[in-house]
Amino acid sequence: MNTERGGFTAGWRSWWPELGGAALVLLLVLYPTSGLKSAVVWLGLFGSIMLARRNGRPWNAGGMGALLIGYGLVVGVTSGFSIDPSFSFRQVMKLVENMAAFLVVVNLAAATGGADRALRWFAMAMSAVAGLDTVRLIRDLAAGSDLLRDDRWFGSLLGYPTIAAAGYGVALMIMMAPLLHSRTWGSRLGVFGVMAVMLVILYFLQTRSVVLGLLIGAIVFIALAPVDAIRQAAVLGGVAAVLGALLLIPGAFRERLLSGGSPERAAIGRDAERLVREGVEREPFREWVGFGYGHKIFEKLHKTLPRREREASRVYDHAHNLLTETKVQSGAIGLLALGGMATAALFAAWRGFPPRTRREERMNAAVVSGALAVLLVYAQFSLFYAYLPALLFWALFGLWTTVAARPR
After folding, report:
1. I need a surface site. Which of 99, 144, 189, 369 has the fewest CB within 10 A?
2. Could you report the per-residue pLDDT of 12-55, keeping only the tens digit for each?
3. CA atoms within 13 A on the CB side of 10
4. Which residues contact 400 (CB under 8 A, 6 or more apart)?
5. Is 182 exposed, middle or buried (0-12, 13-18, 19+ CB in 10 A)?
6. Could you give the CA distance from residue 328 to residue 139 in angstroms, rounded to a whole number?
7. Which among 194, 203, 188, 170 has a CA at the least distance from the CA of 372?
8. Global pTM value
9. Burial of residue 118, with CB atoms counted within 10 A of its CB: 0-12 exposed, 13-18 middle, 19 or more buried
């Protein structure tokens, strides 16, 4: 009896950190702009510093310290020229918090070998979100909503359809690791079932940028993952089957996919070009420093266009493109800082990517690289600087520097 109790206790002790970690990630995913997120980030930063001191390990920025400082300084300087300085400096503080999240992920993953654990927690959290969203979706369909033909679904716990789709797209890519590396067919079928549910939800969210991101992310994953030709073909076949189904199922999403580019996004881009051009003509320094850092700075500009002169059907809070948004917010030096950070990070990955002989590390690096590809493709067409996508980017970037760009 004592042995059984000891066994039960030992089993619980091995599971409660997993459940607790997944629950914490679930809360962060559901409330990415809350005070809870701020508390977790700053307490995590303090804890990672104390852990490093206790273990005699160097506390580090994943080799990206100079790049983070440089980017932060550029954003801070350009915010001094903002059309709304107080607003921009509040947004800078949110960027600093996301950078702190990056540092927490880097140091905890490096100190505890926690890359596997972090990926597993995120997969568990998103599986729970998918289960809850499925209940909500069935409820909406039962209430008479004709989502199959007429409209995208706005009922996800993750919020607006494009934001929710970004979260699911990242989750699908990360779950490729347990799908291909599970030791039993039962666990593989379980992972496959969860991924199938996520794909159904993605269909109802109707976000084309995430579909394209998943295609690019799958190519990145296949190119980097330590899997044989049969599994590569299986991944490609699965992606082709999903794309084929999306193109064959009749309804609004099929029409959106076959229509090509979005006329509304093109109109937003032309409005952005006009606002930048006219702003630079009035104040030439705007070409270099932009109009102020932060999500919704574009909205402050966009609403200045009279309705008869605005090409977009309404005022938007972001430019629906990462590069255009960066140019509006931080000008040419912001684009240079962002491009420099991306170039240096890719060079670090070229030097430090795990070899195929280290299969587990290589698999983690491949799925995180694919997930980042999903998010960056999505960012060329949708929101990037706020809410869940911003938190996902900095957390994934932290994991990526730990598993894909760490000097060997």
Report:
1. 144
2. 456 777 888 899 999 999 999 889 999 999 999 999 888 888 88
3. 6
4. 345, 349, 365, 368, 369, 372
5. middle
6. 41
7. 170
8. 0.91
9. buried
